[in-house]
């Protein structure tokens, strides 16, 4: 990258090869995201500009991002400060988990559990991080009132900023605290959570070292937080209310069993786009409904 004239296409090709040699699976995508960021444009525009030269100032900024991506394995979203989730642009920093594509399956399941777009739902998102799930649900269910909680004040601060940027903050209440503790005594029509579910000691990609431990780990089998969420779920739901939890594929069976043992009905697992079990959902029975 040191000599004088480089076109957009040449830079992308060089960077893709460099990232691939470093074992980065999404080499081309990452190169495009970083170069688009440096040029203040979007990925599509790069294709129109393939033959244009990239000036030295842009190349210098790009070089530094490429180094941090390849050598330090900083996630692209932390380098660009933004990640798209459910077609919503979200600000991202080191205080939050970078929203993952598989979490869109959690949103999908939640919407199926509450299919009426005009319903005045009360929704709880536990461990909201960047606000990804709460914001997607607020966008899709315009009459829903959402409480989004997190143990991390810094995460909540960013979630609040994201809600403001998307003009969704009026219907989302942010509350700091442990799991259901900030909303004790309240009941919801829908409870969702993408909690920490990684087992301590699991072999992990180096990118995860840049994300908050609090967002990732949950005891020896990764189930510590999910167990608590299921244990106290009954008290949080209205009769007939539903819940959906994201988890690791090998955790679906035990969470399904815990929900069934707790008296919940319609217990089922939904697979993500990669066909892996990803979301377990259930409903609190409603005796009134017969
Ligand atoms: C896996 S991240 C999910 C973030 C976001 N919902 C998403 O899907 O991108 C889990 C989140 O739960 C929060 N968290 C961890 N333990 C918690 C607890 N005991 N009570 C509340 N939030 C917790 C973390 O701070 C983190 O923001």
Would you spell out the secondary-structure blueprint of this structure?
Blueprint: H1 8-21, H2 27-39, H3 43-48, H4 56-70, H5 76-80, E1 82-85, E2 88-91, H6 103-113, E3 122-126, H7 132-140, E4 145-150, H8 153-165, E5 172-176, E6 188-193, H9 213-216, H10 224-231, H11 233-236, E7 237-246, H12 252-261, E8 265-271, E9 277-283
Parallel strand pairs: 3-4, 3-6, 4-5, 6-7
Antiparallel strand pairs: 1-2, 7-9, 8-9
CATH architecture of the largest domain: 3-Layer(aba) Sandwich
Q: Given the helix and strand composition, which structural class is it? A: alpha/beta
Element-level helix/strand string: HHHHHEEHEHEHEEHHHEHEE
Biggest sheet: strands side by side, in what order? 5-4-3-6-7-9-8
The dominant shape is elongated
User: End-to-end distance, in Å?
Assistant: 70 Å
Strand content: 15-25%
Uncertain ranges = none
Q: Give the tally of structural domains.
A: 2
CATH superfamily of the largest domain: Vaccinia Virus protein VP39
**Count of helical stretches:** 12
Cα radius of gyration in angstroms: 21 Å
Helical amount: 25-40%
Describe it.
By secondary structure, this protein is α/β, with parallel strands linked by helices. It folds into 2 domains: 8-72; 86-289, Vaccinia Virus protein VP39 (Rossmann fold), CATH 3.40.50. The chain has helices spanning 8-21, 27-39, 43-48, 56-70, 76-80, 103-113, 132-140, 153-165, 213-216, 224-231, 233-236, 252-261; strands at 82-85, 88-91, 122-126, 145-150, 172-176, 188-193, 237-246, 265-271, 277-283. Strands 5-4-3-6-7-9-8 form a 7-stranded mixed sheet, sandwiched between helices. The protein has a two-stranded antiparallel ribbon with strand order 1-2. β3 (122-126), α7 (132-140) and β4 form a beta-alpha-beta unit. It is elongated and about 75 Å long. The model has no long low-confidence stretch (mean pLDDT 97). The structure holds S-adenosylmethionine. S-adenosylmethionine is lined by residues 96-97, 99, 103, 126-130, 132-133, 149-152, 155, 178-179, 194-196, 214-215, 225.
């Amino acid at each position: 990258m040191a000599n004088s004239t480089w076109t957009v296409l040449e830079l992308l090709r060089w960077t893709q090869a460099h990232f691939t040699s470093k074992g980065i699976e999404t080499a081309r995508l990452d190169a495009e995201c970083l170069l688009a960021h440096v040029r203040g444009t979007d990925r599509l525009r790069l294709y129109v500009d393939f033959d244009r030269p990239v000036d030295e100032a842009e190349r210098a900024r790009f070089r530094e991002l490429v180094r941090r991506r390849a050598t330090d394995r900083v996630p692209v979203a932390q380098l660009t400060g933004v990640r798209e989730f459910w077609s919503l642009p979200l600000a991202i920093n080191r205080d939050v988990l970078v929203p993952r594509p598989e979490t869109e399956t959690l949103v999908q399941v939640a919407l199926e559990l509450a299919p009426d777009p005009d319903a005045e739902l009360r929704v709880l998102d536990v461990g909201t991080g960047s606000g990804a799930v709460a914001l997607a649900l607020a966008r899709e269910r315009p009459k829903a009132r959402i409480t989004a909680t997190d143990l991390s004040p810094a995460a909540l601060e960013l979630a609040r900023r994201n809600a403001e940027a998307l003009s969704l903050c009026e219907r989302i209440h942010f509350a700091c605290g442990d799991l259901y503790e900030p909303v004790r005594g309240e009941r919801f029509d829908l409870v969702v959570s993408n909690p920490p579910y990684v087992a301590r000691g699991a072999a992990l990609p180096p990118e995860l070292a840049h994300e908050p431990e609090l967002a990732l780990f949950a005891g020896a089998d990764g189930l510590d937080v999910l167990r608590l969420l299921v244990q106290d779920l009954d008290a949080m739901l209205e009769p007939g209310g539903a819940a959906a939890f994201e988890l690791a594929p090998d955790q679906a069976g035990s969470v399904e069993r815990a929900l069934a043992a707790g008296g919940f009905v319609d217990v089922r697992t939904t697979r993500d786009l990669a066909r892996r079990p990803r979301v377990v959902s259930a409903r609190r029975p409603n005796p009134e409904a017969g």
